[in-house]
Design a protein that fits this description.
9 helices, single chain, alpha/beta, 5-stranded parallel beta sheet
Length: about 180
């Protein structure tokens, strides 16, 4: 199975991706594009610029093209489309719908981790709170409106419930029985 996890920074994406990759037999977790580019020497602005988000978007699109069948992605291209929207770039001007649709067609499930009252209360305070909130809103709008008709055929699971139930909710959506306690 191929699962993509999307959400603004500080919503528990990486923790969920690690838990999911550890729970699904034979699955690996794809490294987040930001970390891959950073390791390669790419210098990001702080906060990242629109150009930085374009580079991240391109890397994320390439990542979805990975031949690996059993993989969990910590971020998907829709994350970077949302960050770009916040910087004033129209996502529809960035990429063709066919390319985006083809990339998302490789996923069996798109999981969205929005900001919730519990993430705000329980998780560590994230940097750039305004960018974080704006990206969250842009992401949810993109995912629900799907203006590029890119993920209409991909099941989307929005995790707005308790943090402790996230892994079970994703496993259930994938048709995998949760382990007995």
């Amino acid at each position: 199975m191929r699962v993509g996890i999307s959400g603004t920074h500080g919503t528990g994406k990486t923790t969920l991706a690690e838990a999911l990759a550890g729970r699904l037999a034979g699955h690996v977790m794809a490294e987040e594009p930001y970390h891959l580019l950073d390791e390669e020497g790419y210098e990001f602005g702080f906060p990242p610029s629109a150009e930085d988000y374009r580079v991240l978007f391109a890397r994320s699109m390439a990542g979805l093209g990975s031949p690996q069948d059993a993989i969990v992605f910590d971020r998907t291209p829709v994350d970077y489309l949302a960050y770009l929207a916040v910087t004033g770039v129209d996502p529809e001007d960035l990429v063709g719908a066919a390319a985006l649709r083809s990339a998302f067609a490789t996923l069996d499930l798109l999981v969205v981790t929005p900001i919730t009252a519990e993430t705000e209360r329980v998780l560590p305070r994230a940097e750039m709170p305004r960018l974080r909130a704006d990206m969250n809103d842009a992401l949810l709008e993109l995912v629900h409106a799907d203006p590029l008709d890119a993920w209409a055929d991909v099941p989307v699971l929005e995790l707005d419930g308790p943090l402790e139930g996230r892994l079970s909710a994703v496993l259930k959506a994938l048709g995998v029985r949760p382990q007995e306690p």
